[in-house]
Design a protein that fits this description.
The structure holds two protein chains of two kinds. By secondary structure, chain A is α+β, with helices and mostly antiparallel strands. In chain A, 41% of the residues lie in helices and 18% in strands. Chain B is built from 13 helices and 15 strands. Chain B folds into two domains: 37-170, Immunoglobulin-like, CATH 2.60.40; 180-413, Aminopeptidase, CATH 3.40.630. Classes of the chains: A alpha+beta, B alpha/beta. Bound molecules: zinc ion (ZN).
């Protein structure tokens, strides 16, 4: 009899232990994910979760050349909010995609943006694929339009960018297509914008 | 072995055939060239104008260039030309000169008036060019009327046969026209001894392309060669081209050609290309070192007080050049470069009759290393179908070369 008793006490003890352990486990799993999200948010600021259905967007102004004059014309766009680098890439992708209001494309449509890197002093290194130069129509006016459509679009929307330096396939280039010097950075030229 | 031995015995026969062919053909050649490629020129005076008539029995291409009292008629032909003229008895035409060069033939009509107008018309079958010469101003017309006209010369129009037979007093136009503009230049301009012309692009690097496929590099070279010819004939200056054929030359080497030749002026010649097909007109650029300068200048231009900004471009002293890095050589000459650009742009505006696109500043790679006043001329838009046609036209190319030349002269005249 005593032996049986002892056994049942052991069993009850084990059962209690199991219940407590599973309870703790449930509590852990329920609270755990929340904790982790908090940690991520602390580390990376306002980054959006990819699974979240509504991406935060903001309005930017892009500059396109026109058929009828020599000015750069503003056109509004929505881009996803992100780091200055990510926003810069998106702005350039929108420029490559072209105007929705019938303006001309300032870049060859085959060109791709490889990367944008912004240094602490505010120099944005914008690295294009080779098509930027290989498919460019050449000519001083066309080269200046390409450069300032990009520089004006970047600098008027991203305050972190103080100057823009062009790279092609990760390397410095002498000129865009035989004329304009790319060995030096550019700053925005608001005087080129249509009033 | 046997075949080898038979060769020498075959040689005399080949020689005989060749020799006889040469002898036979030589009978035909002289007479052929004499009749086929003769150009005759006669001068007639009418009451209020003089007429120069160029006749030939093959069609020719002619281009006109006017320099003060001289009208140059460039005559292009695939075959060499011989020249004959009747004696000249004209109030307006003082003399005729003829020269044949590799580039073609040149008829120089030297007029007794410092300024005159001309009009030309071409008739084919038989080929004939008629050039009407008139005094440009009313005053000169009166002076001309007061002169007793030599009516004998006026009425005496020689027949073709007579013209061929008449003795032509050959005048070397190169000798006659050479360096005429030197006399009008101030002493300071005589320090300018070498001009380097830079025909943009070349070889695999074609530059911009016209809708009809005209390549910028070809137009640039054609205009540069013409400009070289004009400068060399009109001024006692050395002209060096960074390229005189269709070859690749790096932008750094172009600057090096200028600096190694101790260039006093550097002019890079280009045709423009834009995204929009309607873009037209000429632009003359000088270098911008800092993007902020470029913007300041552009704003000043837009606000219509560009002369104010002009003053702000400071001239750095000559001894500072030694301190400047090779790739910054141009920074010491920005003021002079902007003035040269201004003079050239004025002439091009007159030529193309377009709204002034203005002197502009941009970071052109080719200008950065040039250690003398340097500009880049965008003659017209090769991307514009109308201007592409113009750029292909040799007559237009001559006019452009002449306009740039006039810009250079005006710049040199202002030197002190
Ligand atoms: Zn060019």
């Amino acid at each position: 009899m005593r032996g049986r008793h002892k056994k049942s006490i052991k069993l009850i003890f084990l059962l209690i232990l199991l219940i407590v352990a599973s309870g703790l486990a449930i509590m852990f799993f329920l609270s755990g994910p929340k904790e982790r999200i908090k940690v991520i948010e602390k580390r990376e600021g306002k980054i959006q979760e990819p699974a979240q259905p509504e991406r935060l967007k903001r309005q930017v102004i892009l500059y396109f050349p026109s058929e009828n004059d020599d000015w750069l014309h503003p056109e509004k766009r929505e881009i996803a909010v992100g780091s200055p680098e990510i926003e810069a890439e998106e702005i350039i992708q929108e420029l490559i995609a072209g105007s929705t209001q019938g303006y001309l494309s300032p870049l060859p449509p085959q060109a791709k943006i490889r990367q944008v890197f912004i240094t602490r002093d505010g120099t944005a290194y914008v690295d294009f694929s080779r098509e930027l130069v290989e498919r460019h129509p050449s000519g001083s006016a066309a080269e200046l339009v390409t450069i300032y459509a990009i520089v004006n679009s970047l600098m008027s929307n991203i305050p972190a960018i103080k100057q823009v330096f062009f790279l092609v396939e990760g390397a410095e280039r002498e000129t865009l297509s035989g004329h304009i010097n790319l060995n030096k950075p550019f700053i925005a030229m608001p005087s080129l914008i249509a009033r | 072995m046997a075949k080898r031995r038979s060769l020498p015995s075959g040689f005399p026969l080949v020689k005989i055939i060749l020799l006889s062919f040469i002898i036979i053909s030589s009978f035909f050649l002289p007479s052929f060239s004499q009749t086929a490629n003769l150009v005759q020129v006669k001068v007639e005076d009418k009451v209020d104008l003089s007429r120069v008539i160029i006749m030939a029995n093959i069609p020719l291409e002619v281009f006109f260039n006017k320099f003060g009292s001289i009208l140059e008629v460039r005559i292009k032909s695939e075959h060499p030309l011989r020249f004959r003229s009747s004696p000249i008895h004209s109030r307006l035409v003082r003399s005729l000169g003829w020269a044949s060069t590799k580039q073609g033939n040149l008829l120089v009509i030297d007029c007794s008036l410092s300024d005159f107008q001309y009009e030309s018309s071409i008739r084919r079958q038989p080929f004939q060019v008629e050039i009407k010469l008139k005094p440009a101003s009313q005053e000169e017309k009166i002076i001309l009327a007061k002169k007793s006209p030599d009516l004998k010369g006026d009425e005496k129009i020689l027949s073709q046969a007579e013209a061929i037979g008449s003795s032509f007093k050959s005048i070397d136009p190169i000798e006659k026209a050479t360096h005429k503009d030197d006399l009008s230049l101030p002493a300071a301009a005589r320090r300018v001894k070498t001009i380097v012309l830079d025909p943009g692009h070349g070889g695999l690097e074609t530059g911009a392309k016209g809708p009809r496929g005209t390549l910028e590099k070809d137009v640039n070279l054609a205009i540069s060669l013409k400009l070289k010819e004009i400068i060399e004939r009109r001024l006692a200056l050395r002209v060096v081209l960074t390229r005189d054929q269709d070859i690749d030359i790096s932008l750094e080497n172009r600057a090096a050609v200028a600096n190694n030749n101790r260039a006093d002026l550097f002019i890079s010649i280009h045709a423009n290309g834009a995204f929009r097909p309607k873009a037209r007109g000429s632009e003359t650029y000088f270098l911008s070192l800092r993007a902020s300068d470029e913007e300041a200048r552009r704003l000043a231009y837009l606000e219509n007080n560009s002369p104010e900004f002009e003053k702000k471009i400071e001239e750095e002293s000559q001894d500072q050049i030694m301190m400047i890095l090779w790739d910054m050589a141009q920074s010491a000459f920005l003021k002079q470069s902007s003035q040269l650009a201004e003079f050239i742009q004025t002439e091009l505006n007159n030529l193309l009759e377009t709204a002034n696109r203005g002197v502009k500043q941009a970071p052109f790679k080719v200008l950065t290393g040039v250690a003398c006043p340097a500009v880049l001329v965008e003659v017209a838009f090769i991307s514009n179908p109308e201007e592409e046609e113009k750029l292909r036209d040799e007559n237009f190319q001559w006019s452009v070369a002449q306009a740039i030349y006039q810009g250079i002269i005006n710049y040199l005249r202002k030197l002190s």
